[in-house]
């Protein structure tokens, strides 16, 4: 199926960097000579230069981000949108910045996942165009057990579970409709908001390198990945 629909990508970056142990928010920490967030925006731009990129940040970080863009001569075109009080609110603000009469597809992606592959991005748009949604996941490698309230545990078949990543890509009209609901505690990602409408979530295979940079160890791994790709500046 050939897909000529208008494509958006909402990149959400609202982390405080607490688990990184520093004062600088994790999305701004440098890897390979550039802040993490610039690597993330770049991979979507490299996939499709006509992609409409929407970056959602806390309002308090706007000035800092704009200074970084000047400092690093970062010219990837994007629209800057103020984040909300939660991830749900931030995604909703990003979606609301898209005109209501606009048709097309939107990928929602964590700003601190800079190693998503262009192949996964492409497959997410392709599948969402056909099925309504496309959620990137990877298989579990380790055995898993369910911990019970009394401290005991029970074996679970890992083949029945997947680790969820982003992008999570949707037909635009559907996901905007889904985000009209009130935020609920079990909305852990965009797929659960979509599923809340009674719609089936479609899974696609992600790439294992597409980790969410959260701890100092993740930054070390990120530097290793960039060195392998020859992108250390």
Automatic annotation (TrEMBL):
<comment type="pathway">
    <text>Isoprenoid biosynthesis; isopentenyl diphosphate biosynthesis via DXP pathway; isopentenyl diphosphate from 1-deoxy-D-xylulose 5-phosphate: step 2/6.</text>
</comment>
<dbReference type="InterPro" id="IPR001228">
    <property type="entry name" value="IspD"/>
</dbReference>
<comment type="similarity">
    <text>Belongs to the IspD/TarI cytidylyltransferase family. IspD subfamily.</text>
</comment>
<keyword id="KW-0808">Transferase</keyword>
<feature type="site" description="Transition state stabilizer">
    <location>
        <position position="19"/>
    </location>
</feature>
<dbReference type="InterPro" id="IPR050088">
    <property type="entry name" value="IspD/TarI_cytidylyltransf_bact"/>
</dbReference>
<dbReference type="InterPro" id="IPR034683">
    <property type="entry name" value="IspD/TarI"/>
</dbReference>
<protein>
    <recommendedName>
        <fullName>2-C-methyl-D-erythritol 4-phosphate cytidylyltransferase</fullName>
        <ecNumber>2.7.7.60</ecNumber>
    </recommendedName>
</protein>
<dbReference type="Pfam" id="PF01128">
    <property type="entry name" value="IspD"/>
</dbReference>
<dbReference type="InterPro" id="IPR029044">
    <property type="entry name" value="Nucleotide-diphossugar_trans"/>
</dbReference>
<comment type="function">
    <text>Catalyzes the formation of 4-diphosphocytidyl-2-C-methyl-D-erythritol from CTP and 2-C-methyl-D-erythritol 4-phosphate (MEP).</text>
</comment>
<feature type="site" description="Positions MEP for the nucleophilic attack">
    <location>
        <position position="212"/>
    </location>
</feature>
<keyword id="KW-0548">Nucleotidyltransferase</keyword>
<dbReference type="GO" id="GO:0019288">
    <property type="term" value="P:isopentenyl diphosphate biosynthetic process, methylerythritol 4-phosphate pathway"/>
</dbReference>
<dbReference type="GO" id="GO:0050518">
    <property type="term" value="F:2-C-methyl-D-erythritol 4-phosphate cytidylyltransferase activity"/>
</dbReference>
<feature type="site" description="Transition state stabilizer">
    <location>
        <position position="26"/>
    </location>
</feature>
<keyword id="KW-0414">Isoprene biosynthesis</keyword>
<feature type="site" description="Positions MEP for the nucleophilic attack">
    <location>
        <position position="158"/>
    </location>
</feature>
